[in-house]
Predict the structure.
Amino acid sequence: MLIIIGIVVVIVSVLGGFLMEKGNVSLLYQPSEIIIIAGAALGSFLISSPYSLLVYVVKSIRGSIGGRSQGRAEYLELLVLLYRLFSKIRKEGLVAVEADIERPEGSPVFSSYQVNADNHNVVDFICDNMKVIITTNVPSHELESLMDLEIETRQHEALGPSRSLAKLADALPGLGIVAAVLGVVLTMGKIDQPPSVLGHSIGSALTGTFLGVLLSYGFVGPVATNLENRAKKDEVEFQLIKVAIVAFVGGAAPQIAVEFGRRAIPAEDRPSFNELEEEVRGK
């Protein structure tokens, strides 16, 4: 939602300032310049990106616009989910959670939490690592290395859309110059025309540079930064899970293990100790 608000603010500010100086907005509408810049940008993006990345970029942008970012409530829910798993293991043994992690969609431990429906990556990460614990007698430090490897791989993949859009944003001013140069070429062909015609043609050419710079720094670049920040924030969930599981495998009690996980959450979104304790007691 903030992306849409930001786009509106950029458009209103640029056009508003232009109108304050008695500018004619219709002069900024140059279909040929738009086609050159937008078409070249789309073509270069298609050339540089595999199909899977293109799909991922579209999904990431849609999620950024309409999706819900993780916050205090979601982190608290995840901590309680881990506590329930750890407590069940502590009371009934590792075999007791085998059915839960094999089919989390039908597990009363997982299905009672919205995180199961909203974020399958988180559930898969929990289940895969719990399977490792059940099937192998892996030491906590080796388990931590294994989880770090997966988190690094997931983060590299999650940053793909933001990196691609950032490169596109870097290219847009250059594509704007391409459109402007083509406009100048057309203007030189009208050198024998009156000044009013030449002025209009030169203005159209300069519009290409304007559009390229505006698209780069006003829209595509900020969207790329937004996707990067969201990817880094999503990583917190995996770090939380890793810290809690490693602590539990290392011998910590369930409540102490989830407290380790709570400390991995940034301060602005971190539930308090009392909030976590109340939720744990309630469950």
